[in-house]
Structures are given as structure tokens and as C-alpha cells.
Amino acid sequence: MRRTIRLYRRLLGAQVRATLEYEADFWIMSLSAVLVQGIGVVFLWAIFESIPEINGWRFWEVVLIYAFVVISEGLSTLFTQGAWTLAVTVNFGQLDALLMRPFPPLLQVLSSEVGFNGLGNLVLGIGLVAAAVRHVDFTWSPGRIALGVILVIAAAGVKIGLNLLTNCAAFWLRSPYSMFAFSMHTFGELARFPITIYGLGVRIAITAVLPYAFMSYFPAAAVLSDGTARLLGLLTPLVAIYCLWLGATAFRLGLSRYESSGH
Amino acid sequence: MPTHRPEPRRRSDVDFSASVVGLASAKVHDGSVTLIQAIGLRKVFRKPDKAPGIRGSLRHLVQRRYSEHVAVDSIDLSIAEGEAVAYVGPNGAGKSTTVKMLSGILVPTAGQVHVDGLVPHRARVENARRVGVVFGQRTQLWWDLPVRESLELLRDMHGIDRSRYQERLERFDSVLGLGDLLPVTARKLSLGQRMRADLAAALLHEPRVVYLDEPTIGLDISVKDRVRSFVRQLVSEGTTVMLTTHDLSDIEEICQRIIIIDEGRLVYDGNLQAVKDTHVRERTMSFELEDSLLGADQIAARLPGARVHLESNGRELAVTFDRMTLGARQVLSAVLAEVEIVDMHIDEPAIESVVRKVYAGQLQAEHGGATNSEPMR
Predict the structure, then answer these.
(1) This protein's superkingdom (chain A) (predicted)?
(2) Which fold is adopted by the domain B16-277?
């Protein structure tokens, strides 16, 4: 286990160096992440300018949900961005090299890219939390804070598992584009808002089918409120384990279909 | 509880049926151990049937038709520890597909593979510790990292200790001239440099088995020589080498055994020298004559069974003979008895002509017995 973590860090570190071969990319990606996610917040603010609350959620509470997404996505981008390279890797037959190294292929894929935009996410996300806690009408105990940290990490696990699962479609689709995964990711963006505003179909889809709601709404609700949403939110770590297992299983099945290239 | 439940299929890394197979055939004639074993190895790819053009592609969206392409068709292989085997065949014969199944990259459609007691595609990580692969067409280095970084990552993955690693680097430097390449980013390497770095990366952990898939493709003569002498050295140290190539000098310089496949089927498997003895029995001696000759009938009369050809200028004579029935000395003395010669040379049988015969479909007919049967050794 220790060896695995150490090697994973080594591989990521190597990718940091490789990415810094293209310094401009580093700055562009980090800054654009702040901009993209920041625009989302501005959009929220614009909405709440005209309506004081949505289904009982006030602006700063929604900002907290939003921060959950931004941070958990930041973590997954920073540490497991490699999932998004799977389509190209499979299509070009580049998985061959990974399969001939004595380290689990799945971990090699996940660590094969560092998303520096994740840094931008983290900076913005932490800023949003800092700004929101002052405005949210709530008593902050150490227990709540610990819960928040655990749930953010679990939320990142949900995102990583779902990213992996959807990107594994590459083994079946065989195209060099991660279109399927990307459209699922876009669908997951719905979870940036309190999901009670959606119809039943969408709610079921983002809770049970591809549980994107567990990277934002439910864990945020577990920290902020009471009731069913809170109970579900406390299940986030279990959901994370389930999603990661799904992703790993899809990868294992996919690998047995892998055809390399140029027979 | 019923007592005679069928045993569930083991999913452990080490397939224990491997050791059974291993035991059954572990001892080859010379007492060495079988390291690579494949039985009925088969790989079928599914390919979409599309009519040409956009129209065909669009139609395929609604009418999905596929056909099966058998890349490797029931191949049996048995390679002993320390052997150097050439695996040859025309383009698309299934060479790379076989190597990819033996190395665990592809999962076979049917059949069994065992390499050093492991099923490669089930025990990938453990397999990677014992096996090294070089694909001539594609690099295994980290594209955006200096060669040194790639090697150090591999060192960490394999858990090679520092001093051993240094020894390996020095060795690679002396044979492959690796030193100059270490600080260079992989994507900036020339083809020849890349191949040398790739060899180092694949052999860093001193694998017992090495698969080389066209390791000299596109290289210039000097790099080819370097690569070949390096591989020869590996073989002399007891590494088992399986070499896929179109370059016949690679084969002649490195291998003792040749396996020929065509259209996914094993066509020949045997000793390289034996192949030459059986299929390249003809040898040609060419002479340059002191004086021009009018006819070669007298020489021909002295050499029954040989074909004697005299060029129209009367000064170049070629004698083609079966080297199992006639010796070069007999030919030489027969010629010298009739004429004075200025110069002569002998064309040695090249493996090229064997492979050519196979490609032309001749060998199969002549040597049907060897097809898909026990390896002839």
C-alpha cells in the first residue's frame, strides 16, 4: 500500500515536470479554471438578485453547494485527470506500454496527467467556503468542520469513480474522443444546484443512476441542514466507494476487450 | 452440501494449471525448462463491414454488420529457457498479435498461454517484472520526460536498488551509448536514439524473457549492428529472446530457431540450420575464368547432378549444386581440371530464400508434416 502511494506520487510528480515543459499551459489552465468556475458564481449571484431563495435555499447556501463541486472537482482534476486520456490511449494503442510495467494499469492511467486547472479550482473553492461561512446562519463546531472535510474528500471519490466509469466507455466505443464521458460530465453539472428544483426523473438520474448529486448537493446538505438530504449526504463515503468500484470494474472489463493497434 | 461440486475457476494471479502444464512439458530434449508455452492460441478481431465512402459508413449506422478476422489461428508454441527464436512471416501474418498475447497485452480469444508459470494477461503486474518488450514502432518511454527520468521511474516501479541501477546504466552506456541520451526528452530523440533508449528501458530490470518486435526497423546500419550485438550478448547470458523481424540479418545473427507463420497459422518451426539444410540445399559457385571458354560440357560431365551455366562472354561460369551430394572441393577441382580461374566465390544459402519459399506457399506443400505439429528441434 505504501509502495503504491509512493509510486503514484512519483508518477504524478513526473507528470508535473512533463507539464511544466509547457509553462504557458500551466498558467493558462490555472487561470482559466478560476475564470470558468468564477463565472458560475457570478451567474448564481445574478439569479439571486431577482429571487431571494430557491426551494428554501439562500444564495450563500447555494454557494456552499457550489464550493463542494468546485473543490471535489479540483481534487479529481489535480490527482486523477489521467482518466480523461483513456480514449486517446486506447485508440492509439498506447496502453501497451502501461501494461508492460509492474504497476497496476488503472493507477498508471489515472496518474498519467496532472490537471493544473485543479489548482485554480481549489483556490476558488476554498475562497468561496471562506466567504460563505460568514454569511450562512449556522453554528460551526469542530465536528461539523471535520464532517465537511471528510465529505469533500468522499465527494471527490464520487467524481473520480464516475469520471473513470464514463471514460471507460472508450474500451467499447474505441473513438479517440471522450465525448460520452464529457456529456455525462456536463449532465452532472446539474448537481451544482439544489436538486429539489428538478423533476423526479432528473433527481433519480443524478441520485441513483450516475450519482453526481453526491459530489455536491447531498454532502453540502449533510453539513448544512437536517432531514432526508442530510441522511443521504452522510452516505457519501459509501457512495464514493461504490462509484470507485464501478469505475475499477469497468476498467477491468474494458482491459479484456483492449485490442491495441496495428495487428 | 454436495461433495462433487465442480471446482470454481481460480481467479488468483498465479494460475496453478500452469504448473501442471509446465511439469508435463518442462523437460525438453536437452533438459532445459520450457519458459513460454502456448497451446491452441487464437485471436479473433471483429471488424465492421462497411461499404466504401460516406454512404457506406452511414448505412453501417443502421445496418450493423461485422465480420470476424482471425489474426492468430490455433498456434502452439514451446520455447525453452535461453532460446533465441525468430518469429517471422509476411506483414499481417499475426506476428505482433502473437507477441501481444504472449506479453499479456491482449487477451486470447481461445487457447492457453503460460510464460514462466504465469498467465500473462491475468497476472499482468507480476508478468511485467519478469518480461521485457520492445516495440520497434512505438516508444514505451514517457514522451515529455528526459530519458533519465523515464528510467528512474521504471527503477522505482521495479524496485531496483541504486547500485544495481548504476551498473545497468554503465552497461547500457558501454553497449548502446546511452550516456548521451539520458538528458534528452523522449520526443526529441531520433529513431535510432529512441530505439537504444527503449532497449534500455525494457531491459533495465534484467527480464528472463525478452520480446523484440521489429527492433531494427528503420535503423541505419551502425545502430542495427549495435542493437544486434547487444541482443546477442543477452542471449549468451541466458536470456530467452523472441524476435519478430523482417530483417533476415537479424535472424541469422541472433537466432538458432525459426518459427514461420502465415495468415495466423504456424507454417514452420525448427532449427535455423536445419531449415537451411532442408530447404536451401542449393549452393552456387561462381568463377571468373582466365580465358574465355566455348562450352562447359566437359565440366558438366565431371559434375553429375550439378547445373553448369556459362555466360555468353565465355569468361563467367556458375555451378549450382546440391551441397548434400557434392562438396565445394569437388566442384573446384572439376573446374580446375578444365580451365584456369582468376577469381571465385560461393553464395551461401540465406534464410531469405527459405522465407521467400514460405511466402510463395511452397514450403507448406513440401513440408506439410511440420505444420502445427510438435516443434522440430
Answers:
(1) Bacteria
(2) Rossmann fold (3.40.50)
Strands B240-244 and B209-213 come out as parallel
Contacting residues of B for A95, CB less than 8 Å apart:
105
Residue B57 CA to residue A241 CA, distance in Å, equals 41
Whether A14 and chain B come into contact, CB under 8 Å, resolves to yes
Chain A interface mutation, best of B43, B47, B124, B148, highest count of A Cβ atoms under 10 Å: B124
Q: Please name the helix (run of DSSP H) or strand (run of DSSP E) that holds residue A72, with its range, or none.
A: helix A59-80
Phi, psi of B214 (to 5 degrees): 50, 65
Residue bearing cell 507448406: B364
Reported as a single tens digit per residue, the pLDDT across A44-92 is: 888 888 888 887 888 888 888 888 889 999 999 999 999 999 999 998 8
Helices A59-80 and A23-50, interaxial angle, to 10°? 160
Cell of A194: 439544489
Judged by a CB distance cut-off of 8 A, whether residue A93 touches chain B is yes
The domains of chain B are located at: 16-277, 281-348
- C-beta atoms surrounding A256 within 10 Å: 11
Contact B266, B364 (CB under 8 A): no
> What pLDDT, on a 0 to 100 scale, did the predictor assign at position A212?
93
SS3 A138: coil
Class of the CATH domain delimited by B281-348: alpha beta
Residue B24 has pLDDT above 70, yes or no: no
ipTM of the modeled complex: 0.85
